Amino acid sequence: MEAEINQVADILLQKDSFLILTHKDPDLDGIGSMIALGTALRNKGKRVVLFTEEKLQPPLGNIKGAELISHHISENKFSATLVLDCSDLNRLGKAKELALLNRPLISIDHHETNDHFADINLVVPDSSSTGELVYKVIKKAGLCINKVVAEALFAAIQADTGCFKYENTTSTAFSIASELLKYGVSPWDVYRNTNEQYTLPVLKLLELSLGTIELHHNGKLGIMSITLNMIKTAGAYPGDSERFISYPRFIAGVEVAALIREIAEKEYKFSLRSNGKVNVAQLASIFGGGGHAKAAGFECKGELSELKEKFIKEVSNFLE
Amino acid sequence: MEAEINQVADILLQKDSFLILTHKDPDLDGIGSMIALGTALRNKGKRVVLFTEEKLQPPLGNIKGAELISHHISENKFSATLVLDCSDLNRLGKAKELALLNRPLISIDHHETNDHFADINLVVPDSSSTGELVYKVIKKAGLCINKVVAEALFAAIQADTGCFKYENTTSTAFSIASELLKYGVSPWDVYRNTNEQYTLPVLKLLELSLGTIELHHNGKLGIMSITLNMIKTAGAYPGDSERFISYPRFIAGVEVAALIREIAEKEYKFSLRSNGKVNVAQLASIFGGGGHAKAAGFECKGELSELKEKFIKEVSNFLE
Predict the structure, then answer these.
(1) Burial class (CB in 10 A: 0-12, 13-18, 19+), B179
(2) What is the four-CA torsion angle of B165, B171, B173, B176, rounded to 10 degrees?
(3) Mind listing the pLDDT tens digit for each residue in B26-57?
(4) CB contact under 8 A, A203 and B215
(5) Is A158 near chain B, with CB under 8 Å?
(6) What is the pLDDT of residues A156-195, one digit of tens each?
(7) What would be the CATH architecture of the domain defined by B2-194?
(8) For chain B, which end, N or C, has fewer CB atoms within 10 Å of the first or last residue's CB respectively?
(9) A200-319 adopts what CATH topology?
(10) Do B179 and A167 touch (CB under 8 A)?
(11) Which helix (H) or strand (E) holds B247?
(12) In this complex, is the C-beta atom of A183 within 8 Å of any C-beta atom belonging to chain B?
C-alpha cells in the first residue's frame, strides 16, 4: 500500500490537470472522496474536473461541495485520470472512454472485487472506505485540508461504515475521524444532511410492508414482501423501500432476512442479509444471483407465493 | 479537569477497596463505565463491588462483564465510593446511604446538571460520555486495559454518542475509540449485542403507530400517537415505543416532533424533539414539563383529541 500511496502522491504533485471520476449511481464514499481530492488539488492551483453522468439528487446531492461536480465535459485533455471507489471500468458508464484517453489512469478503491484495471492501483480491501485511502494520499502529498475537504472525507467514511458500526470500521477510520473533527466537522450535521429523510409516502409504505413480515424455520428466517400495488397505494417510489430489510433482519433470533420487492409485474428482486451463520452469497447463487457472504441477492419471475415457497424450502438447507 | 483526574487516579492506586455505583434505571454509559473501571481495578488486585439495585435486562444486560455486577451487598466497608454518570445523589436510590458511608466520595460524570455532590467531582459536561472520562482516569492511573475493559468503554461511548453521530461526539471520543479497537473490540458486535432487537409485537406496534402520523403547520409539526389499546392489540410492552419518535422527527421539513403515549387511561406522556429551530424545553414548560432544548416532555390528563388540539395551537407560537 505504501508504495502506491507514494506513487499517487508524486503524480498529484507533478501533474497539473486531473479528471476525477467515480462509479455510476455513485454513493457518498465515491462522491465525498471526489470532492475532497478535487478541492485539495484545486487549492494547490491544479486544474481539476469532477464528473458524474447524472446530477446528484438529495440526500446525496446535499453534500457540501456537490456544486463542484460537472455533468458535461467541454475539454478532454488532462494529465491524469483518478477513478475513485470503482471496481471496474465498465462501472464508469459513459466516462470510460475519457478515462482511458487521459493516462496515467489511477484507481483508488477498497472493493475486494476490484479488477486492477488502472496503471496504478491503490486498492486496499481492508480499508474502511475509499475516503480513508484518499485521506492518506492527501496527507502524503502534503495537500492542505480545509473544512470542505474534511467534511467530504468524513461523510465518505461515516457513510461507508454505517456511522462507525459496520464490520469494516477500523481503528484507522476512528483515528482519521478524530483528526477531521479538528477542522470543525459536525458528525450530526453531516449525518442529517446526507441521509434520507422520511416522507409520508415512505412511512405509509413502511406501514404496509411491516404488515407482510413472516417468520419461518423457528424464527430463523424473516421475510418482508413489497408489491407494486403497495408502492402505488402508498404513493411512494420503488427505491423507497431499499433500507426496509433492517426490519426483518433485526428481529431477535433471525439468521437470514429477505426483502422481496416486485420490480415489474410478476418479476421480483430478493435482497438477502445474514446475521452471521449463513453465507447468503451461496444461497443467492442457487437462484442465479450473487453478492457477499452477509449481503447478496437475486432476481426471478413468477408467482410470488410459489417463488417464496421455493426460497423458504432452500433456506432450510443452510440453517442446519 | 487535569487536577481532578490526578486526584482520582491517586486514590485508585492508594486505596484498596471500592464501591462503584451508577444511577437508577442505568444506561450503557453508566454500566459500561462501571464494568471498565471495576475490571481494571480488580486486575490490579483491588477489592471492588459493582452494584445496581435491579438485575440488568437485555439488551443492556447483554454487555460483557454484566455478571460482575451485584444486586445485594453483604459488606458495607470500602475505602472509597465511585459514583459514575450520576448527576445527584438521589438518583442513586437505595445505594445513597451506603455511598455516603464510604468516603471519599468520587463523582465521575458528564451531565451539565451535575450538582457536585461528591468530595471529588470529575464533572466535564464537554465530555462525550462518562466512559470517555473513565478512560482518562484508567490511563492516568496506569491501570491495564484488556478486552473486557476496552469493550465496556467502547459500549459506553458508542451508546451515549448514538454511534458517533450525536452533537456530543468529540474528536477525543473518536481518538479513544481508535485506541480501544486495538484491543480487539468489534463495533458491530458491541452494537448488535447491546441494542434492542425487534420482536413481532414491536413491529406490529410500529405498524399501528405509523398509521397515526399527522403533520400540522405546513409540515413543520409531526405527531405520532400511541394508545393503550394499540399496545394491547400488538401484544407489546409500553416501553417498546420509546424510540418511535424518530419517525415523525425525520420527516423532511419537520421542525418539532411529538410522540404522544397513553400511559394510563386518559393520561398521556408527550415526548418532544426539535430539529434545531424550536426550544422544546420552553414549549414543554408551558405544559408543566421540562428537559433540554432539543429533547423535552410533559405529562397531562384528558381526552386525547382535546390535548392534541391545545398542543398544536401552542406550537404555532414557537414556529413563527
Answers:
(1) buried
(2) 140
(3) 999 999 999 999 999 999 999 999 999 999 98
(4) no
(5) yes
(6) 999 999 999 988 999 999 999 999 999 999 999 999 899 8
(7) Alpha-Beta Complex (3.90)
(8) C
(9) Diaminopimelate Epimerase; Chain A, domain 1 (3.10.310)
(10) no
(11) helix B246-249
(12) no
